[in-house]
Amino acid sequence: MEGLVHIHSGLRWIALILLVVAIFNAIASKRKGEYSKKDKMINLFAMIMLHTQLLIGIILMFTSSKVNYSNPNGWMKSPVNRFFGMEHIALMIIALVIVTLGRKKAEKITAPIQKHSKIATWYLIGLILILASIPWPFRAALGGKWF
Predict the structure, then answer these.
(1) Half-sphere exposure (CA, 13 Å, Cβ side) for 92?
(2) Which of 1, 13, 72, 122 is the most exposed, fewest CB within 10 Å of its CB?
(3) Which of 69, 108, 98, 99 has the alpha carbon at shortest distance from 86?
(4) Distance in angstroms (rounded) separating the CA atoms of residues 41 and 87
């Protein structure tokens, strides 16, 4: 199980980089006024990596010792159990839904400038939610680790 935690923690960097690349690409490509296959692939790969992270996270949700639902009256009192059992999962799913909806809405638009605007906006909102729900090392109450 420890290996799966390391994979999930390591892949977050790839997911974050792809999301940031997609946002900056949308902003830069918006000025060009065209939406190419490259733009579509960058947006798609960012979304796929987030979905992959979600699948790994769901496995960890049922197997990790940091998620403990066994005490229904007390698991919310522990900052670690509350964060990993509810806050982290809920915010990540919301962020993933926002990114997915943003990409889907952008694909329906025909004007390239509006497509890029939609991607930049929705992906940025998703990125902010993801950054807020990562167990960063400075969150000492959570026992966060870089890897």
Answers:
(1) 25
(2) 72
(3) 69
(4) 30
